[in-house]
Amino acid sequence: MISGTITRQISGPLPPASELEHYEDVFPGAAQTIISWATEETDFRRRMIEEDAAHQRRMDWADMIRSYVGLVMGAGIAIAGFVVSYKLAIVGSQIAATVIAALDIGSIVGIFVYGTIRRQKSDQEG
After folding, report:
1. Residue 23: exposed, middle, or buried by beta-carbon count in 10 A (0-12, 13-18, 19+)?
2. What are 12-36's pLDDT values in tens digits?
3. Which pTM value belongs to this model?
4. Which terminus, N or C, of the chain has the lesser number of Cβ atoms within 10 Å?
């Protein structure tokens, strides 16, 4: 005795027309139900894709705003550090002024190095 299996793969939301016809023969109205389901599913997927794209645009916008706010805040803090260092140098605390200026410059350099490394890792992953 010889036995075998036939496998058929269907691509897309609808079965072939011959199968739809067979469904209709077995259960009247089934073809229309299947076509309606496929249409609803396609509409749903399109809506989800559009909503996902809109969400991604909002997230990109928020990231850009967050980045600019971070730049402005960082610049403000750096300037404040230099002002404090300058004032300390004027009143005669050169050591404290030097330490604050060094920490300020070191922080700025560290942030840029960290950002560069993070961007490089992100580029390699994406």
Report:
1. middle
2. 778 888 888 888 888 899 899 999 9
3. 0.54
4. N
Residue 126 pLDDT exceeds 70 = no
Q: CA 55, CA 50: separation in Å to the nearest integer?
A: 9
Helices (DSSP H) in the chain: which residue ranges? Answer: 17-26, 30-90, 94-125
Backbone dihedral region for residue 29 (phi beyond 0: left; psi -120 to 50: alpha; all else: beta)? left
Alpha-carbon torsion (93, 95, 98, 104), positive or negative: negative
> Residue 97 in contact with residue 85, Cβ under 8 Å?
yes
Q: What is the DSSP letter of 27?
A: S
CB 85 within 8 A of CB 48: no
Listed by start position, the domains of the chain span: 17-125
Q: Which of 108, 119, 115 is nearest to 75 (CA)?
A: 108
